[in-house]
Amino acid sequence: MKKIFFTLLSALMIFCAIYIIYVSPYTIIDNKKQLEVNVKNFINKSTVFVENIQIIQELNLDNKKLILFLTNDNLLGDGELTKGINNKYKIEEVGYSNNQFMNHVIKTDKKSYVILEGKNYNNKITYAKVLLDGNQYKVNIPQQSYFIVYCEIPSVKTKITRISMDNIKLYDKKNIDITNEMFKIFFN
Q1: Phi first, then psi: what are they for 139, rounded to 5°?
Q2: pLDDT tens digits along 135-146
Q3: What is the pTM of this model?
């Protein structure tokens, strides 16, 4: 009898530990309004206060959700969320600034990706070439105001999470390098 009791108690404790570790942090459902509220609350944990955000782009890649948003001060921000086994999300990171172009290297539960996101002023950018670990990748940029795009990369053991802007070149529809022109706009 004691053996059964301890076995059941052990199983219950294991179940509770799994729930606490793998399920309870994932509370955000896949709903734009709830995402906006949770991202705003996440930002407002710091000393900075954001009155409101508006999600303008979302991208789902494997177990990750990437978002691009504008703050009430018209600053561009991005966030990364991870989907849990309960099909809900938790926020991994969120940030915003006056920069209008951002990049990341992310690893999902299946693959690795280069992510480019930002504002496509006057729809001038047609594609980007990204140099990472000696390999060059071409990433098409949609002809729309804001974008989140990705390119699958080999699941290498790179520790790079952000790509140096020196390793990103932007091109227009005539294949002309417009990197310097765009970066002056993005980072001023």
Answers
A1: -125, 120
A2: 899 999 999 999
A3: 0.81
